[in-house]
Amino acid sequence: MNFTIGSIKCFTQERNEIQREAVKHGYVILLGKSIDKVLGFGKNDSKRSQMLVQITGTLRNLANDDDSYSRMCKSKVVQKLIQVLEKYNSPTNKELMQNISRVLSKVSLDSECSKAIIATGKLKFLADLLCDWQHQTLFVQRIAFVLANLTTYFDEAREQIGTADQVKKIIAVSLYFFETDQQFYEDELRNQGRDFSPRTADKIANQARVVEDTLVKLIRLVANLSTEEQFIESITQSGEREMLNEFLTWMVSTLQRKKIGKSEEFILNSVSCATNLLFYDTPSKEVMFDEDLRIKIFKAVKMYVLETTNEELQIEAVRVLSNLSRHAKLCEEFVSDRQFIEALILILDHTLRELVFYTIGIIINMTMHDSPRAKLCQQQPLLVGKLTDVLKDANIEDMDLAKVAGKALHNLAVCTKQEGATFSWSSEQIKRVDEIVTNLGEELDSIMDVANEEELEEIKGIRDLVNALINDMPENTFDCPDAKCGRKFKNQGELDKHVQRRHGSVK
């Protein structure tokens, strides 16, 4: 039996058409039955392990064909592989463990196979394997890939793993790989100028790539788990907040030295993970992360707002910044960075709606704090115009976007009326905003009669905002032409009287 299956493994190793034919002729079902037979065969674990190596190696080959997935589910091969993984979890069975990890990593891309893995109830065991086998990089990479796939799409998967003990283990393994990745980076710096043979250079580069790819899978797993509030609660309640801080600190430090041309997937997953973790870091809650770490995250992420053609990364970057902008200290940091503010204003011209929406959210958050709001208003001539464009384009077709644009304009309008304000809207800006807001209000009124109850609630919300903006918008003023005077008047007549009375005639 061992030699027979070994032969099948050899001839199905490379050619896709042979793998396809083998699947079509029931080899997956045959191999599933072989697992049952081997597990009940004799008492010599060593011999059974050898036969299972051949069986799982063959299944690894056949898993290259997508049609094998349904057959693995039907013959319960997926469940049997988890059973073997648990029974033969030992360093002496390294090849067997690697074979199974490769099969599971492939089938975890299939929805039905994923459900079969989850149904075993063994996801905690798989998470334990990450820690037990952390020095076997490829094994960790594949198991982390499996868990990341499952936790992306299935709530039950996140619920099975999202306990304090499992999360701590996953973070501990991640920290190990961050340190390993850092070591490769330091070695690269030390070895600059050294003349390695092409074979040695390729080997080192490949090892570094494997470590980075493993980190990508682990970070993605943490990001998925952190979409569940129980993830954060399990960490904070177990007193392991510092561990979470250490994870985020390492991730941001690593992010800062990665280049998008070589490490785009790492950067995207890291920024996405930071977004999820920072969601829980609100001013109203007990401090999750300290101010220095938040500022470090800002400096690491802000460059991806514009300096990338990857729109998904741009969106994740503004989501991170949106979460950070809930903190007054970070808003101070934002408005002190003129290039960053200019980048936000540029984004308001972007055609990607989600990117514009989150960017306006950042602007709104900055205008919620007195000092950042005043500094931002000093940038306002261009900002007011861009927000007005967004409001006009959104109109009633996109009420959510119109609402945030209107809210940002209202906050800026209120800012100009504060005592001691040294800035104002131009007459052209006031006229344009007034026209657009008035038209929007009329359109909202026109659809109220045909709107249902739910739509009326939405319409009323934006109508109230329109009314507030009309009431609080700066008034158009007529400025004294004498620069030393600086007086402002509500109409031309009052200005003319002032000029005649105070200045006689001003050219």
Automatic annotation (TrEMBL):
One of its GO terms (biological process) is cilium organization. Residues 478-507 form the C2H2-type domain. SUPFAM superfamilies: ARM repeat. PROSITE patterns: ZINC_FINGER_C2H2_1, ZINC_FINGER_C2H2_2. Keywords: Metal-binding, Zinc, Zinc-finger. It comes from the Eukaryota. InterPro entries: ARM-like, ARM-type_fold, Armadillo, ARMC2, Znf_C2H2_type. GO terms for molecular function: zinc ion binding. PANTHER family: ARMADILLO REPEAT CONTAINING 2 (PTHR21356), ARMADILLO REPEAT-CONTAINING PROTEIN 2 (PTHR21356:SF1). This is C2H2-type domain-containing protein.
